[in-house]
Design a protein that fits this description.
The protein is an alpha+beta fold. It is built from 5 helices and 8 strands. It has one domain: Alpha-Beta Plaits, CATH 3.30.70.
């Protein structure tokens, strides 16, 4: 669903509104080129043959932990028009709390019989969700900042090869919740080239 911001329509965020994307967790990320154009190479005999830009995309992905030391890279693949990868954010002492837990109300809602309209009965300004705060400030060392930096450096060097190179504005992410899901996603990534003709990005 679209909403207006500064009198312009924008798509509502698909990210969880009560999840901090700087929390330690495993994230499955997909980043597509603009209009899904084949900038990164092509599939021949079920094997991905990287173009010059594809090699840039692969090399800069592998360099992510050098710039974000709390990141561990898992399975990833560069496809003709997108990149799939599992990123593990691993910050010491940063185990995620229950993201759906509600905070206690700081203002009493119990009526005071001695004061029918106390100041505390005035409705407080609703606290912004993590997602609303994220829209105003992406924050450092979050999944968005990691992917934003990656896309930026690939764009810088890719445009020296092809001036029209561009990414799709957003990227897709999925929080990996358990071991079974993790293994299924790794299997999907490793077999992406082999199953290319059945892929929705084909």
């Amino acid at each position: 669903m679209s909403e207006k911001f500064q009198n312009k329509y924008r798509l509502a965020s698909t990210r969880l509104q009560d999840w901090d994307y700087g929390w330690s967790a495993a994230y499955f990320v997909t980043i597509c080129t603009k209009d899904r154009e084949y900038f990164f190479g092509e599939i021949n005999d079920d094997v991905m043959k990287l173009s010059e830009i594809g090699k840039l995309a692969e090399n800069f992905w592998l360099e992510i932990p050098q710039h974000f030391p709390f990141v561990i890279l898992d399975a990833f693949v560069v496809m003709p028009n997108h990149v799939h990868g599992i990123i593990l954010i691993n910050k010491p002492g940063n185990d995620p709390v229950n993201p759906v837990e509600t905070r206690q109300c700081l203002v009493s809602t119990i009526p005071d019989p001695t004061n029918p309209e106390p100041e505390s009965a005035i409705s407080p300004v609703p606290e912004k969700t993590i997602g609303q705060q994220r829209f105003q400030n992406q924050g450092k060392n979050t999944l968005s900042s990691i992917i934003g930096s990656y896309k930026s450096v690939v764009t810088k060097y890719a445009r020296q090869i092809h001036a029209d190179f561009s990414w799709q504005t957003r990227f897709h992410d999925h929080i990996i919740r358990n071991h079974e899901s993790h293994e299924n996603i790794k299997h999907y990534i490793f077999n992406n080239a082999r199953n290319w003709k059945d892929d929705k990005f084909y």
